[in-house]
Amino acid sequence: MGSPMDQEPPFDPEVTLAAAAAGWGRLSARLGPDVRDRLAELLAVARAPEQGEAGRRAAARAASLLRERLPDEFGEGAQARLVAVHDAAGGPPTVQGFTTEDLAVLLMDGHHMVGPVLGPVRERLLAEPALDPDTVERRGGSPYSPDLIRLRGPGGRIRLPCFQFSDDTLPWLTVLEVNALLGADHDPWGAADWWLSANAWLGTRPARLLGSGRDRQLVEVARFLMESDY
Is 33's pLDDT higher than 70? Predict the structure, then answer.
């Protein structure tokens, strides 16, 4: 029997899933579509806060699937190589700045706003006031315009940043025009970041200028930005 120092460390599903997110660029190609689909199904349960114990079991099954399919990365002996950092405030463990939620984002949400660089941008944008589609519809607005910014927040829930709507929850026409220029339908995070970050040409965050009489300037600055990218 080996000494305690030789034994496998306790299996922590969240560490395994965070490590998979950190290495997803090279690991995803090693997993077939069926495995990726199964991981997505399990993570859909694991990321939903209301799932409780069922969510924890789903996370454990997802981690076990990775250990089974990628034993050189996550199987016996490999767990000891995973270096995780546990947030002092009791947050989830991170591996190279990635979390379990980052793996769910990569598999399910269709964007790469994850990790130590883009993850904080995602969190900053999700911290802005937002409405869910049901609330917009209940107040008489329409959440379905293709030119509205839709961000997937915790648990994969759709969030529509509030700045896009006037007081009666109708979308600002300027927002729809600018969002179309920015390509918000395929890059909602980039569009949201433009509206909610300081802009040197405008002297403030563009969202603060809605309803101020500077609508055409917002459109022209967005158009200039997009034309200068080509």
Answer: yes
**Burial degree of 97 (CB within 10 A; 0-12, 13-18, 19+):** middle
Nearest to 179 by CA among 154, 152, 160: 160
Instruction: Select from 86, 112, 20, 17 the least CA-distant residue to 55.
Output: 17
- Residue 8, pLDDT score: 44
Residue type, 117: V
Would you say 130 and 110 are in contact if contact means Cβ atoms under 8 Å apart?
no
End-to-end CA distance of the chain: 65
Rounded to an integer, what distance in angstroms lies between the CA atom of residue 145 and that of residue 157? Answer: 17
Angle CA(159)–CA(164)–CA(166) in degrees, nearest 5?
120
3-state secondary structure of 130: strand
Supply the pTM of this predicted model: 0.84
Task: Report the run of H or E that residue 27 belongs to, with start and end.
Answer: helix 24-27
Which of the pair, 200 or 81, is modelled with greater confidence?
Answer: 200
DSSP summary character for residue 110:
S
